Each structure stands twice: as C-alpha cells, then as structure tokens.
Amino acid sequence: MTRNKNMAALKAGYLFPEVARRRRAFAEAHPDAHIISLGVGNTTEPLPKTITKGLVDGAARLGTMEGYVGYTDEGFIELRQKISEVYYKGQFSADEIFVSDGAKCDIGRLQILFGSAVSIAVQDPSYPVYVDGSIIMGVQNISFLPCTAKNNYFPDLSAIPANSLVYFCSPNNPTGAVATKEQLKALVDTARAKGCIIIFDAAYSCFIRDASLPKSIFEIEGAKECAIEVQSFSKPAGFTGVRLGWTVVPKELRYTVVSTGSTTETTGATVHSDWNRIMGTLFNGASNIAQWGGLAALSSEGQAEMKGLCDYYLGNAAIIRSTLETKGIQCIGGDNAPYVWAKFPGRDSWDVFNEILEKCQVVTTPGAGFGPAGEGYIRFSAFGHRKDVEEACKRLGCF
Ligand code: PGU
Hints:
Aspartate Aminotransferase, domain 2, alpha/beta, binds ligand PGU, seven-stranded mixed sheet, four-stranded antiparallel sheet, globular, 12 helices, Aspartate Aminotransferase, domain 1
C-alpha cells in the first residue's frame, strides 16, 4: 500500500500541534513553570445558561419516544431557517444552508468539490487549513496574496488568477483585519469578472463591533453568483468542543470559466447540487444535540449570551493590545477580532515565540505558521480566562 504522495508535499506538521509540542517540551524541562496559553484560538469560558439548557434539553429529548430523532441529513429545517433569518435577513431558503460539524470540517470537504486541478489564491497570512488542505488534495497552483501594513491588510486583487478558488477570511485569522464593504465589493466584482469562486470564512464575524463593517459576503451585491460562506458556532457560543457550524451555498452559484473576456458555463450542474451530493455521501449530519444547542443560541436570550461571550474575549484582546503597545510593539487587530497581530521587525517568528515562552512562560503562535508574509509577526489569542490574560500581560510587560 502506498502513501498519498501529496502528504509528502506538506512543508511541516500542522501549525497548532507543533506549538503544543514545543509547549510540552518546555513544560517537561521546567516542571514548576505556570504556562499560560495565548496560542491556539480555543474558547475557555463555560457555556451560558440558555445555550447549556438547549443542549441538556436536547439530550433529554433523545431519551423519549416522542422526542427521539436519528440522522438529520443537512440539519434541522428550523435551525436552517433560523440561521437564514438571524444571519442573512432571510435571503436564503433552508436548503441553501447546510448545517455542519464546524467550519474547519466543511473547508476540508469543500476542497473535494473543486478537486486537485484547481488553482487557489489565499490571503497571506491566513488560516493554514486553506493551504494545507489544498496540498493534501493535490492542488499545485497556489497564489499567495500578501496582506501587510503596506496594503492595509487587503490584497492586490489583480494578482488573483482567472478561474481560481479564492479563500478569504474576514475578520482575518491571524491579523484581525476586517475588510470594508467597498473592499468586499471589489473582491466580488473581481471574482465575477475572472470566473473565480470565493470561499468566504466568516468564523469570527461575531467579533465585529464596528457597525459599518460587513459580517457576511452576502451583504455584497453579486456575491450569490460567486461565493460560498462557511460559519461556525465555535467562537460565539463556545462550541469549539460541541462542534456546530454551517455553509451557505447559493443556488445561483455556477461553474464558469472566463477566457479572453468571455464567460462560459462549464456544466449544467450547479455547485449547490454537487455540494448536496458530496455532503449526502461523506457526511451524516451534525450532532442533533449540538443542533438543539444551536437553536437555543439563536433565540434572543441565546444571542445576548453569545454577544456577552464575544465581548469578554474582546476585553481580553484590548488588554493584550494595550500591553504590547505600551512596550512600543506595533499591533493591529483585537478591536473587531479575537487576535492581536504584533510586529517584531527583522526577527524570526519562531525565535520570538521561543523567547516569549522562555522569558514569560506564555505560549503564542508564530506568524510564519500562517504564510510567508507572517514572518516577523506573532499572533496573540484573546481566548483565555481574564485572570490568566492579566497575568500573561504582566509578564509580557517585562520581557
Ligand atoms: N476558520 C477559521 C478562520 C479559524 O481560525 C478556525 C479556528 C476555524 C475556522 C475552525 O472553526 P470550527 O468551526 O471550530 O471548525 N482556528 C483556531 C483553532 C485552530 C484550528 O486548527 O482550527 C486558531 O487558533 O486559528
């Protein structure tokens, strides 16, 4: 039996297990150290009351004759309708919303939809799953679109190859930058003109506090013809371990190619019908208990609880950012996102990661793990108990 040869094309291990490996090695060498993690973006606060009740009641229903349900296919209809109403002003029918076990899992399955011959374009830096997942699929043509201080963290759209799959994450992981409506409009117009499809990752939309900033690609006219959106309950509802998310695939979305200025539809099949086929074949629905939790999260009390959780983490982010800025370290993010992106000019980001771990016993994430343009940066995650974040900041103050 031979190995999937694409595995050998991956540069290194997945970023976060590598961070965890270094943390473990440090802990073994320093058994008395109290290590604080501002590394992986993992929620830490307990589930709020209404959301917990939704899960508990859901589990109890499964123990009754009237309440029992088995496979739920693409998700409970009520949940799909509620998602459309709460997040998209009802502009999607329930069958355009596919409930999933999380955004990361759907990003992996979406790659199957487009196969290995596709060219992809990604923001650089960005969530490593876009590139690593594509490499595992056998994708060879990858365009990195630098997003740095020089371009105000928005890529040069002219560098997007025609007919490519474009990954776009806003608020961005790791920089925390959020694209404006005008910028997303330009992205949508470019995608339509060049025959591209956008996979828009909105996993952090709940952290957007500036009301002028878009929370979904579907706030932009024309997006239904060129975009898929992945979303998650992980960060707003604390469902990183419960697992629940969704993907919106509009029925208007078509496979098209553009060459010498003209657009041709490549097949009668819609992306929606293919996604239905893939999900029906490879996925058996999200946990029904998680879905009842999701429904509770979308009730008005649940929405207030989700906002409370996000505000808590944004409070942490503000503390981290002001600590770093007081030290004269240039930062962005943390205001509409749970990550602070800090600049260490001319430094190797793994070296800075090691230095912070050794001097402060604080775990971070090195920018280079998010793409070539991340070199020289460190990502600080705002997910943590307040007292740990305060303690970490005290230590960061003196490194
Ligand atoms: N999309 C983005 C942009 C993310 O940053 C993350 C989590 C996800 C999706 C995952 O969403 P789920 O719905 O929970 O599947 N990123 C974290 C956790 C690390 C990881 O490997 O997912 C982070 O620290 O970047």
